[in-house]
Amino acid sequence: MKRFHVHVHVDDLARNIDFYSKMFGAAPARVESDYAKWMLDEPAVNFAISTRGHGHTGVDHLGIQVDNDADLLAMKTQAQAADLSLIDEGATTCCYARSDKHWVIDPQGLPWEHFQTLGTIPVFREEAPTGTATVDSTPASQEPAQASACCSPKISGKPIGIPVKSSPSSCC
Predict the structure, then answer these.
(1) Domains identified in the chain, total number
(2) Is 81 helix (H, G, I), strand (E, B) or coil?
(3) What is the pLDDT along the chain (172 residues), one digit of tens a residue?
(4) What is the enclosing helix (H) or strand (E) of 115?
(5) Residue among 90, 99, 84, 104 nearest 48 (CA)
(6) N or C: which end of the chain has fewer CB within 10 A?
(7) Mapping DSSP to helix (H, G, I), strand (E, B) and coil, where does residue 48 land?
(8) What is the pTM of this model?
(9) 3-state secondary structure 118-145
(10) What is the DSSP letter of 57?
(11) 133 vs 161: CA distance, rounded Å
(12) Helix, strand, coil in percent for the chain, rounding step 5
Protein backbone atom coordinates (compact mmCIF):
# COMPACT_ATOMS: atom_id res chain seq x y z
CA MET A 1 0.00 0.00 0.00
CA LYS A 2 1.14 3.51 -0.74
CA ARG A 3 -0.06 6.39 1.43
CA PHE A 4 0.02 10.08 0.50
CA HIS A 5 2.02 12.18 3.01
CA VAL A 6 1.56 15.87 3.81
CA HIS A 7 3.56 17.78 6.44
CA VAL A 8 2.37 21.27 7.38
CA HIS A 9 4.12 23.77 9.66
CA VAL A 10 1.70 25.45 12.08
CA ASP A 11 2.01 28.26 14.61
CA ASP A 12 -0.39 26.86 17.26
CA LEU A 13 -0.24 23.08 17.66
CA ALA A 14 -3.20 22.67 20.04
CA ARG A 15 -5.50 24.79 17.89
CA ASN A 16 -4.52 22.86 14.77
CA ILE A 17 -4.88 19.46 16.48
CA ASP A 18 -8.42 20.49 17.42
CA PHE A 19 -9.19 21.69 13.88
CA TYR A 20 -7.78 18.66 12.03
CA SER A 21 -9.28 16.18 14.53
CA LYS A 22 -12.69 17.69 13.80
CA MET A 23 -12.05 17.82 10.05
CA PHE A 24 -10.84 14.19 9.86
CA GLY A 25 -13.29 12.92 12.51
CA ALA A 26 -10.39 11.24 14.30
CA ALA A 27 -7.79 11.98 16.94
CA PRO A 28 -4.10 11.98 15.95
CA ALA A 29 -2.26 8.65 16.05
CA ARG A 30 0.72 10.40 17.67
CA VAL A 31 1.04 13.67 19.59
CA GLU A 32 4.25 15.24 20.90
CA SER A 33 4.93 18.72 22.26
CA ASP A 34 5.80 20.00 18.76
CA TYR A 35 4.20 17.44 16.45
CA ALA A 36 1.02 15.50 15.65
CA LYS A 37 0.28 12.86 13.02
CA TRP A 38 -2.89 11.27 11.69
CA MET A 39 -2.62 7.91 9.88
CA LEU A 40 -5.91 7.88 8.03
CA ASP A 41 -7.28 4.99 5.99
CA GLU A 42 -10.00 7.01 4.31
CA PRO A 43 -8.51 8.88 2.57
CA ALA A 44 -5.22 6.97 2.82
CA VAL A 45 -2.98 9.78 4.06
CA ASN A 46 -0.17 10.31 6.58
CA PHE A 47 -0.92 13.91 7.61
CA ALA A 48 1.57 15.56 9.98
CA ILE A 49 1.80 19.01 11.54
CA SER A 50 4.64 20.52 13.54
CA THR A 51 5.86 23.78 15.00
CA ARG A 52 9.32 23.25 13.45
CA GLY A 53 8.68 25.63 10.54
CA HIS A 54 11.88 27.69 10.62
CA GLY A 55 9.78 30.85 10.94
CA HIS A 56 7.15 30.08 8.33
CA THR A 57 3.87 28.19 8.27
CA GLY A 58 2.27 26.21 5.48
CA VAL A 59 3.12 23.12 3.48
CA ASP A 60 6.62 21.90 4.31
CA HIS A 61 6.75 18.90 1.99
CA LEU A 62 4.67 16.23 0.30
CA GLY A 63 5.46 12.57 0.02
CA ILE A 64 4.57 8.97 -0.61
CA GLN A 65 4.90 6.47 2.24
CA VAL A 66 5.30 2.81 1.28
CA ASP A 67 4.98 -0.41 3.27
CA ASN A 68 7.93 -2.36 1.88
CA ASP A 69 11.46 -2.19 0.45
CA ALA A 70 10.34 -3.25 -3.04
CA ASP A 71 7.94 -0.30 -3.45
CA LEU A 72 10.57 2.16 -2.18
CA LEU A 73 13.17 0.74 -4.57
CA ALA A 74 10.69 0.94 -7.46
CA MET A 75 10.05 4.63 -6.75
CA LYS A 76 13.79 5.32 -6.53
CA THR A 77 14.45 3.43 -9.76
CA GLN A 78 11.67 5.39 -11.51
CA ALA A 79 13.15 8.72 -10.35
CA GLN A 80 16.63 7.67 -11.49
CA ALA A 81 15.35 6.47 -14.88
CA ALA A 82 13.62 9.83 -15.37
CA ASP A 83 16.88 11.59 -14.43
CA LEU A 84 15.16 13.50 -11.62
CA SER A 85 17.41 15.12 -9.07
CA LEU A 86 17.44 12.53 -6.30
CA ILE A 87 18.68 13.03 -2.75
CA ASP A 88 19.22 9.62 -1.17
CA GLU A 89 19.22 9.69 2.63
CA GLY A 90 19.05 5.94 3.14
CA ALA A 91 18.52 4.99 6.79
CA THR A 92 17.68 8.05 8.88
CA THR A 93 15.54 9.41 11.71
CA CYS A 94 13.00 12.20 11.58
CA CYS A 95 9.52 13.02 12.86
CA TYR A 96 9.73 10.57 15.78
CA ALA A 97 10.45 7.69 13.39
CA ARG A 98 13.27 5.60 11.98
CA SER A 99 12.96 5.30 8.21
CA ASP A 100 14.59 4.67 4.86
CA LYS A 101 14.05 7.53 2.40
CA HIS A 102 15.02 9.56 -0.60
CA TRP A 103 13.77 12.91 -1.88
CA VAL A 104 12.98 14.44 -5.25
CA ILE A 105 12.45 18.19 -5.63
CA ASP A 106 9.88 19.60 -8.04
CA PRO A 107 10.66 22.56 -10.35
CA GLN A 108 9.28 25.04 -7.78
CA GLY A 109 11.58 23.65 -5.09
CA LEU A 110 8.87 21.68 -3.27
CA PRO A 111 10.40 18.58 -1.70
CA TRP A 112 8.75 15.18 -2.21
CA GLU A 113 9.73 12.53 0.32
CA HIS A 114 9.58 8.84 -0.66
CA PHE A 115 9.94 6.73 2.48
CA GLN A 116 9.31 3.56 4.43
CA THR A 117 8.81 3.88 8.19
CA LEU A 118 10.80 1.21 10.05
CA GLY A 119 9.93 2.06 13.66
CA THR A 120 9.33 4.83 16.18
CA ILE A 121 11.79 6.80 18.30
CA PRO A 122 11.14 9.00 21.38
CA VAL A 123 12.63 12.20 19.87
CA PHE A 124 11.93 14.22 16.71
CA ARG A 125 15.41 13.45 15.31
CA GLU A 126 18.36 11.58 16.75
CA GLU A 127 21.57 13.60 16.90
CA ALA A 128 24.48 12.54 14.70
CA PRO A 129 28.19 13.34 14.65
CA THR A 130 29.05 16.86 13.46
CA GLY A 131 30.57 17.50 10.05
CA THR A 132 27.92 15.61 8.09
CA ALA A 133 25.78 17.19 5.41
CA THR A 134 22.21 18.41 5.16
CA VAL A 135 20.41 19.51 2.06
CA ASP A 136 18.51 22.78 1.83
CA SER A 137 15.36 21.79 -0.03
CA THR A 138 13.34 24.99 -0.26
CA PRO A 139 13.42 27.85 -2.71
CA ALA A 140 15.82 30.67 -1.90
CA SER A 141 12.88 33.01 -1.31
CA GLN A 142 11.83 31.05 1.79
CA GLU A 143 13.46 30.26 5.12
CA PRO A 144 15.55 27.12 4.59
CA ALA A 145 13.92 23.83 5.55
CA GLN A 146 16.41 21.06 6.00
CA ALA A 147 16.19 17.59 4.49
CA SER A 148 18.82 15.72 6.44
CA ALA A 149 21.19 13.43 4.62
CA CYS A 150 23.06 10.44 5.94
CA CYS A 151 26.76 11.32 5.97
CA SER A 152 27.27 12.79 2.49
CA PRO A 153 24.03 12.91 0.53
CA LYS A 154 24.00 10.80 -2.62
CA ILE A 155 22.64 13.28 -5.17
CA SER A 156 22.01 12.17 -8.73
CA GLY A 157 20.06 13.34 -11.75
CA LYS A 158 19.61 16.80 -13.20
CA PRO A 159 20.92 19.48 -10.83
CA ILE A 160 18.32 21.97 -9.67
CA GLY A 161 20.37 24.22 -7.45
CA ILE A 162 20.00 22.49 -4.10
CA PRO A 163 22.90 23.74 -1.98
CA VAL A 164 24.55 21.21 0.34
CA LYS A 165 25.45 22.63 3.75
CA SER A 166 27.67 21.17 6.43
CA SER A 167 25.73 20.59 9.66
CA PRO A 168 24.59 17.73 11.87
CA SER A 169 22.78 14.88 10.17
CA SER A 170 20.19 12.52 11.56
CA CYS A 171 22.12 9.32 11.01
CA CYS A 172 25.54 7.63 10.57
Answers:
(1) 1
(2) helix
(3) 889 999 999 999 999 999 889 878 899 999 999 999 999 998 899 999 999 877 788 999 999 999 999 999 999 998 898 888 889 999 998 888 999 999 988 877 889 999 999 999 998 888 765 544 433 333 333 333 334 333 334 555 444 444 333 333 333 2
(4) strand 111-120
(5) 99
(6) N
(7) strand
(8) 0.69
(9) EEECCCCCCCCCCCCEEEECCCCCCCCC
(10) -
(11) 16
(12) 15, 45, 40
**172 within a domain of the structure (yes/no):** no
Q: Which amino acid is at 163?
A: P
Q: Which residues of 12-40 are buried (b: 16+ CB within 10 A; e: fewer)?
A: ebeebbeebeeeeeeebeeebeebbbbbe
Question: How far is Cα 55 from Cα 11, in angstroms, rounded to an integer?
Answer: 9
Residue 122: CATH number of its domain = 3.10.180.10
User: 62 in a domain, yes or no?
Assistant: yes
In 3D space, the residue among 72, 68, 57 whose CA is nearest the CA of residue 104 turns out to be 72
Return the SS3 of 8. strand
Length of the chain (residues): 172
∠ Cα 107 154 118 (to 5°): 95
* Residue 36 belongs to some domain of the structure: yes
